[in-house]
Design goal:
alpha+beta, flat, 4-stranded antiparallel β-sheet, 5-stranded mixed β-sheet
């Protein structure tokens, strides 16, 4: 079929493309995956045929970790991929026989053009139609025009991984909606569409257009609870907690500016579900459990990372992955610096060093001899008399932690210098190694103390006076979950029955550990607010507001 400017849009043959790559341009990366679908004139099938190819990398090329994470594509998958020269021969007739289209036409056009010119000497770059640019003009009030946001706005839900075939299907769905809107707007031919795209897009709208009806969010209760933002097919996009469900949910949809991820999210929200709770603390616990159960794609912090939890022997030299009866340290995460403390102490006793790779320093440039000198300097500072002991190392770790928690950023006032996104360009000297060892000692000690505290907190009876509540709220916890809850008057008895469970039971479960982190954070909050009445552990003495305030200076 001969395609010209006068060809009606509903008779236009179209080839929809998507490329996944290791870089933003051919000068800085390589193709990893290409997919396309050919749409016959006048037809947008509900399930289009999609041709998808993994592309073999040139010798010596690799897939960056970030690209592996967002696409799921690694070097091993690409070993049997199609060669770029063969792919070019397949792509050429597809480009020639139908008008090429992509959601980010400049991106796909750049890569497909490079593919054809490099292997078939095709000098004229293909002229792609861009669905994103059409949407910018037809639907300026949609908060975001990215492929995921726009597809979700139009009722199509995408997978979390960025794969070419999924993006092609989403672009087909987007084009189906846009084509109908263009025809209703009097833009009925290819020529008129190109003229339309030559015009500048309209200015930013006064207010955004969201698929979630305004009356739905305005009818939400003004109470604590958990909300779940839903896509068109009812799947959960995001779960959050709120002191006021109505206020919190509406805050997403009244903002004009914000992080791109938030605007992308609200572009896809078609409905909301809520679960009311008695207090914000209970909302936080329910939020954690909901995220672990539902695994919503826009939740990041509390999603299950499947990291193992372990215990440590009293000398920290043995890592334990099963329940034991003898006294132990922990629980701690397997990534905790606490697992390095025994090795650091042993190396200092022997006048030796730990290899940089075990310390997390292997990815940083190190001056020659910096590790040896850093170990020596740190050891002299901690053990000036040469008497080495675990107790002295832990005491030093706690002191360092307390000194830095107000000075440094990060969750607990400490930040791993080895994980700085702006990794130092200069070589790390002995002083830098000493700072890293100080971080290991301080953070490792923090995690050990936190584990001991969690053994008490997870099986305890907690009472406090929530703001705006109905007196005193009493919770009996088991494994960090609410086993029983009740309200009592401010003067009422909050005694409750302490749970008979063994405090270590279940603490090797990553979800229990994660839930206790949430409970600990909420308990800090109500302690700082001064609303805590008491905490009665399953073992040991009860703590009131003064005792908890002192405890949180150290835990």
């Amino acid at each position: 079929m001969l395609v010209g400017d006068g060809t009606p849009l509903d008779e236009l043959p179209i080839s929809v493309f998507d490329c996944q790559t290791t870089g933003a341009s051919p000068a800085h990366g390589h193709l990893t995956e290409v997919a396309w679908s050919i749409l016959a004139p006048g037809r947008i099938p509900p399930v289009p045929d999609i041709h998808s190819f993994l592309v073999a990398l040139p010798h010596g090329a690799s897939v960056p970790a970030r690209i592996q994470r967002i696409t799921g594509i690694d070097e091993e998958m690409l070993e049997g991929g199609i060669q770029a020269s063969e792919l070019a021969r397949l792509v050429l007739p597809v480009i020639s026989d139908a008008v090429p289209m992509a959601h980010y036409a400049s991106f796909e056009g750049r890569w497909i053009g490079h593919l054809l010119s490099g292997h078939l000497s095709v000098d004229t770059p293909p002229l792609f139609i861009c669905t994103r640019e059409i949407a910018r003009r037809l639907h300026p009030a949609v908060p975001r025009k990215g492929i995921r946001a726009l597809a979700g706005y139009m009722g199509h839900c995408m997978g979390e991984r960025r794969r070419a075939s999924d993006h092609v299907l989403a672009t087909v769905r987007i084009w189906g909606c846009l084509r109908d809107d263009l025809l209703r707007s009097g833009i009925g031919t290819l020529g008129k569409l190109r003229q339309y795209l030559d015009r500048p897009p309209p200015s930013d709208p006064v207010r955004f257009d969201h698929p979630l009806p305004r009356k739905v969010r305005l009818a939400l209760p003004d109470r604590p609870g958990v909300y779940r933002l839903l896509s068109a097919d009812g799947s959960v996009l995001y779960t959050g907690k709120a002191s006021s469900l109505k206020s919190r949910v509406n805050s997403y949809f009244t903002r004009r500016k914000g992080p791109g991820k938030i605007l992308e999210l609200v572009s896809q929200v078609h409905d909301v579900q809520v679960s009311e709770c008695e207090t914000p603390l209970e909302s936080a616990l329910l939020e954690f459990d909901s995220i672990r159960e539902l695994d919503p794609p826009y939740n990041v912090a509390l999603r299950d990372r499947e990291e193992r939890i372990c215990l440590l022997s009293l000398d920290l030299g043995t890592v334990i992955h099963e329940q034991v009866d003898e006294p132990v340290w922990g629980p701690v995460r397997e990534s905790s610096p606490a697992l390095l403390l025994a090795g650091v102490l042993e190396a200092m006793e022997k006048g030796d060093v730990i290899p940089p790779g075990r310390l997390g320093l292997d990815h940083l440039p190190l001056e020659e001899g910096a590790v040896e000198e850093g170990f020596l300097g740190f050891g002299r500072g901690i053990f000036p008399d040469g008497e080495h002991s675990l107790g002295r190392l832990l005491a030093a770790g706690r002191r360092i932690w307390m000194e830095r928690r107000e000075e440094r950023s990060g969750e607990d006032g400490l930040e791993d210098p080895g994980e700085d996104a702006g990794a130092p360009k200069e070589e790390i000297d002995a002083e830098g190694v000493m700072k890293h060892l100080a971080w290991i000692a301080a953070s490792g000690t923090r995690d050990l103390l936190r584990g001991a505290w969690f053994r008490l907190l997870g099986w305890s009876t907690l009472s406090w006076e929530p703001r705006g509540g109905c007196g005193t709220r009493v919770l009996r916890m088991s494994r960090g979950e609410v086993a029983a809850a009740r309200w009592v008057s401010k003067e009422g008895d909050i005694g409750g029955v302490r749970t008979p469970e063994r405090p270590l039971a279940g603490l090797l479960d990553p979800r229990v550990y994660g839930r206790l982190r949430v409970l600990d954070s909420e308990l800090r909050r109500i302690t700082c607010q001064g609303t805590l009445r008491s905490l009665l552990p399953a073992e040991g003495a009860g703590l009131g507001i003064e005792g908890m305030s002192r405890l949180y200076e150290h835990v």
